[in-house]
Amino acid sequence: MAQDETIVLIGEDAPMLRAPLFARFGPARVLAAPISEGAFLGAAAGAAMGGLRPVVELYMVDFIAVALDAVLNQMAKLATFSGGTWPCPVLVRAPSGGGYGDGGQHGQALWGMLAAIPGLTVVVPSTPWDAYGLTATALEHDGPVVLFEPKLLSAEWLQFLGRGSRETVTFDVPPAGAHGDVARGTMVPFGRAAVRRSGNDVTIVSLAVGVHRALEAAERLANDGASCEVVDLRSLRPLDRETIVSSVERTNRLLVVDEDYASFGLAGEVAAVTLEAGLTPQFARVCLDDTLPYARDLEAEALPNVGRIVEAVGRLTT
Amino acid sequence: MRAKALNPLATVGVIIYPGNDTMRADLYHQMLRARAYETAVADLWLRGLVSGEMHLGTGEEAVAAGVVTHLRDGDGLALAHRCSPPLVIRGVSLVPMLRELLGMPDGLGHGRAGHMHLFSRDHLAGSSGIVGASLPMGAGLALAAARLRPECIAVAFTGDGAMNQGMALETLNLAVAWDLPLLVVCIDNAWAITTRSADVMGGDLVARATAFGWRTATVDGTDVDAVHAEAGALIAQLRKRGAPAFLLAHCPRLDGHFLGDPMLRMAKRPLADGRETLGDIAGSVTKAGGGVLDRAGGMLRMASLLVQARAGAERESRGDPVRKARDAMAADRAARDRIERDVREEISAALSVALADVPGGADA
After folding, report:
1. What are the distances in angstroms from CA B97 to CA A32, A77, B92, B111, B280?
2. Is the pTM higher than 0.90?
3. What is the pLDDT of residue B316?
4. Given CB atoms, is A14 within the 8 Å cutoff of chain B?
5. Element (H or E) spanning A254, and its range?
6. Under an 8 A CB cutoff, do A45 and B136 touch?
7. Among A128, A251, B150, B314, which has the highest number of CB atoms less than 10 A from its own CB?
């Protein structure tokens, strides 16, 4: 914000949630929004048309439901409708996902739905390094970007939404996702997956919290003699098809681990990518099959977890 | 900031018409340009050269001219699905607009947008086919103006039907909360697609805007002088950073919701165009089930809709804003004749360029 005066931050509770920025840049650049996503996401599109670079914070991606028009019909289509002359540089920050007992309207992932939209960039970091690097790239990108922020990887969100200062509540937080270095100025490009673990028997394609669950499962499976490769997509649109295909070419077994809904989404898309490349891998998916339940034990079972991944790899390798 | 002229024929200069009242002449000129453009588009649509729905802004010319002639470079313009009159009057080149409708690669949106999605970055003007979306878009353009361009504003055109949309109502709040230099021009043609607005609206629109803290005005949207004066006052205050302003302008909808509007066809030619639907209704109303009063209520409502649709769509009626503006020029026949000749020449030149390589385009 110091370097680019066109950046404005818009969000419900922005002055409180981003108090240091509010104190530094004031109310004209850190705008407190009413609980009115339809208006302020739509206004962000208009503001980008007018020369600003809005960063819009949703409390949770679930709430994009009341403002989808701004993303689907306005931001994502401006470049096409204007014959490529008018970009729409909006960064939408979208905290996402469950694992802290907030129920089915506050714990969804929904990236598959958004990544289906041409004209959007959709990125999902699983580490602080990528969160920083993808944000930096997004702030120089000429189009609309939705940056997912897995809440389970954010101590700040967990404290704010789930713990509320109670010491009696715990979460299954993957340490490598929640803490780690960032390198100032180091950007992470869109459309580039990261191979987090190399292996020869099964390709596990995942993202966000799922990557850490997959890595833990792969470690356990290695003891049983199954060698898993773990691909962290990081970016859904654009999608790094090459990395997926080159891994599956070797393993010929594909497991997608995704905390978004199982049907009509990312898991099917990744399978389609391999089929279009002429591969016919054995395929399985560990995703969210139903409305995310509230009770902690039911939620833990509904989300992709180490046990379900180990079991699915077992099915693929026997 | 103005568009570079892609075609000199389509460039809008500020033509000063000599005569008793240059402002009146200029407004009539702009209204006539918008009407002539839409008339040409209707012809292309009827000939099958333009696909999809076609929502004309015929009947809205006085509102468009009375408001848009106040805009300057750096002002934003957010439009709805009847976006042509404001864009024509704002000075967007006619040939790329027509080429877009014809689906050509050198159209305004390279043939990928269509008539509801016309954008001109040079004019900070955008449109949307989603009812209500022009309000948040306008709010955003106003936010950018407030930060980047002192004394610039944004104008959002919308309709009465759109004011029941969530994002429109949310924007009534947001623009006041953020103190945005936004003028919302609500063109009230009393219709929400084929439903009478009054039948589906609670309260009235000016009271709504007032309740949210907007400065409001109501104007006869067929009287271009009145619109021009009222919009001028509101915009002048906005440039000095007053509260957002809401202008309600009543005007007719001369060509139905869209060209080929089945309700309008049925109203105008019940025997030729309404036979099938009327037959279905007759067949249904005689079947068992449904109370007598319900049937009577339904039939009466249908009949009243058709009568109102027909009454509102009489071209050259006293409510036609272009005719009114023309009548107002009666004292200055020479200026009027020149304007009409200029507009005929401009539209015909734009059409001949736009249609030059379009199959079937030369048949006019």
Report:
1. 38, 18, 8, 10, 40
2. yes
3. 52
4. no
5. strand A253-261
6. yes
7. A251
